[in-house]
Amino acid sequence: xxxxxxxxxxxxxxxxxxxxxxxxxxxxxxxxxxxxxxxxxxxxxxxxxxxxxxxxxxxxxxxxxxxxxxxxxxxxxxxxxxxxxxxxxxxxxxxxxxxxxxxxxxxxxxxxxxxxxxxxxxxxxxxxxxxxxxxxxxxxxxxxxxxxxxxxxxxxxxxxxxxxxxxxxxxxxxxxxxxxxxxxxxxxxxxxxxxxxxxxxxxxxxxxxxxxxxxxxxxxxxxxxxxxxxxxxxxxxxxxxxxxxxxxxxxxxxxxxxxxxxxxxxxxxxxxxxxxxxxxxxxxxxxxxxxxxxxxxxxxxxxxxxxxxxxxxxxxxxxxxxxxxxxxxxxxxxxxxxxxxxxxxxxxxxxxxxxxx
Length: 357
Description:
The protein is 34% helix and 13% strand. By secondary structure, the chain is of the alpha/beta class. It has one domain: Aldolase class I (TIM Barrel). The strands form two sheets. It has an eight-stranded mixed sheet with strand order 2-3-6-7-8-9-10-11.
């Protein structure tokens, strides 16, 4: 693997998971010579995009603690580079690292709308809200060029199919011409993730995601356009971002958010060692305390995979976060996020081609 710097990336390493028996991606060879070729500095890693051609696009789940049973993910990997992203381990299936590879070696599914068209056309298909943004962000930077998310939304509006969007990007406003009409029919809602209002924290936590001020402005624009907009405070990280809970709720309420929800940080599989390395680099003064608190939230482990408790956490810290969230939400009139959308307007696709709107 080329010797490249981690500048402007979330992960500080590119280790490979041992559970798949893959070799760890360590710098080897004459790496000092490589550095010398670049005047003493490592070259910045560039983002690459690979076309993926899956056979299906609609992912089903039966998890009792998740409010949707189907989702669509236009991309694999995410350039936003959020260090806590629970989707990072999925890159290991491609023999790539959940570390820097996850945020720089991306996959796009340009046939997503075509595959979804086929799924919605099947006899006996029963509509229910399709969630976008459940794994990786549907509005990460490469959406600007590939427009896969937009093609999916065009189909969903055409067929009057309900959908939800979760994103960290104000790029969602580009598709307001689709989302607003869908919302008017009771088919759409959008959750904007805001995890920190502090630019310094944001710079390392979510290095390539838009700033919080842009996300809050997006909430205002969506609300003014009649789109049910919610704030997702996911995740809160003890000793790093949890002190901002009340401020984020206040800012989101002022921006017009209809409701909100929060989640304590989760560290499944390879995310835990990546997160530890990130703490050691950016918060060495409190790294041990942060991990000790996370373990207290997760039953003494780095991660709790059990239904329901994985979303809420457990113990005194979980209760404290919940109490603070409830009190701040009541103070600012922010309701619990609910995504009650209509499914009775669904019209199956006509033929093999999309109808003109």
